[in-house]
Amino acid sequence: MNKRSQKAVNYRLGDPMRQCSCCQMYRKTQQDQFGTCTEVTGKITAYGVCNRFSALNNPWGNRLTNQTRAMLARCYAYARSVGPGR
């Protein structure tokens, strides 16, 4: 399978609920700032996300309801819109 470019998959800043560090395709093996992805080219940060995101399965189960997840997503979006220190 050919990897896609970061631009093609809309690679961008993630949020705590949706970021590369909790994606099935993220790989990090060294004490480096960046890891790699099985689907996307280039250096990948644990704090990024793209349109190919596939969440890791939580062996302890999902504790948040869909309603709570949606509320958190709205909070993250709002925080980004006002920026730091505003």
3D architecture notes:
With 86 residues, this protein is an alpha+beta fold. It has one domain (12-55, 63-82): High potential iron-sulphur protein (High-Potential Iron-Sulfur Protein, Chain A, Irregular). 20% of the residues lie in helices and 9% in strands. It is built from 1 helix and 4 strands, in the order ββββα. It has one helix at residues 66-82, and strands spanning 12-13, 26-27, 36-37, 48-49. The strands form 2 sheets. The chain has a two-stranded antiparallel sheet. A hairpin with an 8-residue loop joins strand 2 (26-27) and strand 3. The chain starts with 11 loop residues before the first strand and ends with a helix. The model has no long low-confidence stretch (mean pLDDT 90).
Strand order within the widest beta sheet: 1-4
Order of helices and strands: EEEEH
Total domains:
1
Low-confidence stretches: none
Distance between the termini: 44 Å
Q: Tell me the radius of gyration.
A: 14 Å
Helices and strands, with pairings:
Blueprint: E1 12-13, E2 26-27, E3 36-37, E4 48-49, H1 66-82
Antiparallel strand pairs: 1-4, 2-3
Which features does this protein show?
High-Potential Iron-Sulfur Protein, Chain A, alpha+beta, 86 residues, two-stranded antiparallel sheet
Task: Compose a concise summary of this entry.
This protein is an alpha+beta fold.
